[in-house]
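For reference, the entry.
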Amino acid sequence: MSVKIPLTPIPVLNFVSGKFKAGTGNKISVHSPHNGALIGEVHQSTSADINDAVRAATIAQKEWAATPIKERTKVLFQLRQILLRDIDEIAHLKSSESGKTFQEGKAGLLKGIEVLEFATSLQNLDIGGKLEVSRGVSCEYRRSPLGVVASITPFNFPAMVPFWTIPTALALGNAYIWKPSEKTPLTSMKIAQALQEAGLPDGVFQVLQGEASVAQALLDHNDVKAVSFVGSTPVARAVYERGTKAGKRVLALGGAKNHIVLLPDANPEMAGVGISDSFTGCAGQRCMAAAVLLAVGDVELHIKKITARASSLELGKDMGAIISPKQISFLHEQIEKAVAGGATILLDGRKAQPPPGMTQGNWIGPTILDHVSPAQEISKMELFGPVLCIIRCKDISEAMKVENDSEMGNACAVFSSSGALAEKVISLASTGMVGVNVGVPVPREPFSFGGVNQSKFGHGDITGTSSLDFWSNLKKVTVKWDQQHDNNWMS
């Protein structure tokens, strides 16, 4: 199904205290990556807009926190039904602004709904715990919400990444302020509408549109207690440093340079599809995309399968567009540098033809570079495009040294038929997520998502049970009702 691109620009509004209204700052234009068309116009939020939103959230959060968790999760159950009802409409909208295909847009929302389903289960989990620790004395945990929290999300997943945090933060009793990417703000209004229809009280969920200044203001605001962020490593580091300096709890996920170790005993069909789809899915604009193929030994048959699969993809149908003309220029520049440095081109996506009627869009096809040196810039930096670099390695030890030398640590995968060899890669990988014969090793709920090293700043992960401690405080309660005749340290 082709993406339905808005024919006229959509006014993109803030959502504050249950009402949609424009920010009072400068206007920002939103263009579709598919054809370059103007599809939205958004006004930057000013400090006055931000203060109004935080003030309203602070008031609303107190009553929301006093609401039993079973009632809070009822809203999330309703939200799930609304999102599934409107999934095609939302998928078209989010794809039109992010460059994804319709199916990719739909899949991303479904993955976000998985986190929503996890959050609805919190009402049935023992998230406290009580134990008699001494005669007549009990201790227990009680979870308390933080208050007003905020999330700053990237362009590449306008619905999935926000849903990594929205459901759990709300289920635990927080009020939530969302600053979506200024490149993909249209989807945020649909999500706000869905939450309102689901019965969420006004002020508990707010949306503030704008550029970096809005994010910086939220990081500095005294009444915002925690901030989550997903984006590039340099920005993630800056967000973490600024937020923690202001005394906030911050979890900032940074960039990735994911490696796939390809061993000669791998199933060629499985490797061909899995590795190709990993670096071409979402046009490579995802932090889980394969970026470097560590080819160990004789894997020529496998590489031919990967190349054949990638070369068969049709732009617009099987693979989407790149977010901006600036990013296209960056990818072209990096390919040229790699070739000048000795890499050879197995598949040149710069020659790929845009879909009919979309020549004004931002298009590049799958690109495969062979004999890339580990010392080259392209093998180290995050590209965010459908480019796969092949580094030849004589054995697993050499391959894992290349992987370990990366400053990032998001994901690694191995394609092999040997459990022992796969286990060696698992144990040696310096990443937070590892896949075996899985090109995109995204954990499913309740297993958590998150990297290590320079791919994450802060403690814990952004989804799953690991996320509960980020969005809440543990209150420890010790109770004694009766005087005991024996002596102990709690007497």
